[in-house]
Amino acid sequence: MKTILNQKFTRRSFAGLALATVTAFATPGLAQDTIKIGLIASLSGPSAKSGEAITRGMALAIDEINAAGGLLGKQVEMIRRDDEDNPGKGLTAARELVQREGVVVLFGGLQTPVSLALVPYMNQAKVPFMGPWAAGTPITQNGAEENYVFRVSAVDEMVDVALVERAVTVHGSKNPGMMLINNPWGESNEKGLTAALEAKGMPTAGIERVEANDIDVVPQLTRLKEAGADAIFMVANVGPSAQVMKSLERMGWDVPVISHWGPAGGRFSELAGPRAKDVEMIQTFTFSGNDSPKAAATLDALMAKFPEIKGPADVTPAVGIANAYDAMHLTALAIQNAGSTDGPAIRQGFYDIDSYDGLIKTYSTPFTPEQHDALGAEDYVFTRFIDGEIIPIK
User: Fold this and answer.
1) Is the Cα dihedral 360, 315, 109, 273 positive or negative?
2) How confident is the model at residue 313 (pLDDT cuts 50, 70, 90)?
3) 21 and 131: one domain?
4) Residues 358, 295: Cα–Cα separation, whole Å
5) What pLDDT digit, counting tens, does each position of 327-337 carry?
6) Model's pTM, two decimal places?
7) If DSSP codes are grouped into helix, strand and coil, which group holds residue 287?
8) Digit-coded pLDDT (tens) for 28-59
9) Number of neighbours of residue 369 by Cβ within 10 angstroms
10) Is 42 helix (H, G, I), strand (E, B) or coil?
11) What are the transmembrane regions (predicted)?
C-alpha cells in the first residue's frame, strides 16, 4: 500500500515536495479514517535534503505498517509542514497539526532551535513528540514533570565525548579549539565539549562562533590558529560548515576537523570545496560499508520506492532515513501498546516497548521514564565525504 501524504503547497516548499510524486494524497473522506502522524522539518533551503531523508524514512516505514494492516484497524497518514529552519514557523505548524489536523504523534525539529521551541507546547498539549534528527541535549532532557519528547537520534553530550576522544586518540590533540554555530545548538555543544575536555584535564585553544549566513570565517580561525589550536571541533549545519572549510582552504591551514553531523544534511561536499573530504563527521548510520541484511533490504526497498535512488551515494544523509525509519516503527509499537490514540496512553506505550529489530540496531527497552533517547554513544560511527558519498572511516 502507498503512504498517504498531505502537504500544503507554497512557493518555497514546492521544491521539497518533489518526492510526493511517488506517494498518494489523502482524500478528505479517507483522511477522516486514518491515524495521522505529523512531520515538521526543513523541506526547503540548504537543509532540504535532510527533510527529504526524514520523509523517505518515515514513508518507507509507513508503507510497511500499512501493508501489514495499519494501526488499530486504520491506515497511517503522514502530514508534513515546512518549518523553513525557523522556530516561530515550526511552532505555528505544530499548533496547526495538533489542533486542526489531529496528529497523534508529531515528528520533527530538524534544527535544535526549532525543536526547543516545540518542546514546551508538545508537553503542554500532551501529544508525543518524536525527534529523528536534532541532537540538542535539552530537547529530551527538558525538565518537564510529564515529558512527552522522545528521540531516535544523536545526543550532543554523548557526541561531544566521542569528538574529544577521537581528537585525542587519533590526532594526539592537546589544545583543540571550537567553531560553533551561534544558536542554542552551539550552546548545547559548548557545554558538552567543555565538560568532555575538563574530564580529561584538557584546555581549549578558544571558542569561536559562526553565523548561519557567514561567508568568511578567516578571522575566527586565525584567532584559533594563533592560540595554538591543534584540532578543531566543528558544530554547524551545511552552509556555515562549508564556509569553515573554505576559509581553512584560503588560509592554507591543514588542521584536523572533527565534526558533529551537521554537514551531512545537504550539499556539503559541493559547497565546501576540496577540503570537504577532510572533515571527520559523526553519524548514527550509513548504508555504505554496511553488510547487515536489514540495511541491504531497506536500501532495496528505497530504490524500488524512489527510482532516483540508484545506490548508497543517493541516500545522503542516510542518518535521516535510518533514524526516521526506526523512529516510525517504534512509534507504531507505542500506539499498538496503547491500544488508542490518546497522548498519555501512547507515551506509556513507548515505555512498554520490549524490543524491536531495527535498521540501526536491535532495540531493547529503548525508552524508560528516565531515558527518552533510544540511541547511545555505542551507536555512533565516524565518516567522511568521498565523491559526495558518506563513507565510514576504517
Assistant:
1) positive
2) confident
3) yes
4) 9
5) 999 999 999 99
6) 0.84
7) coil
8) 333 459 999 999 998 987 778 889 999 999 99
9) 11
10) coil
11) none
- Whether 239 is in a domain gets the answer yes
Q: Which of 303, 295, 286, 291 is nearest to 357 (CA)?
A: 295
Q: Cα–Cα distance between 80 and 345 in angstroms, integer?
A: 24
Which domain does 19 fall in, by range? 4-154+293-376
- Do residues 153 and 131 make contact, with C-beta atoms less than 8 angstroms apart? yes
Q: Are 30 and 147 found together in one domain?
A: yes
Q: Which amino acid is at 187?
A: E
DSSP for 325-392, written as a single string: HHHHHHHHHHHHHHTS--HHHHHHHHHT--EEE-SS-EEES--BTTB-B---GGG-EEEEEETTEEEE
One domain, residues 10 and 35: yes
Specify the number of domains making up the chain: 2
Say yes or no: 8 and 82 in one domain: yes
Label the pairing between strands 177-181 and 149-151.
Answer: unpaired
Domain finish residue from 283, 317, 346: 283
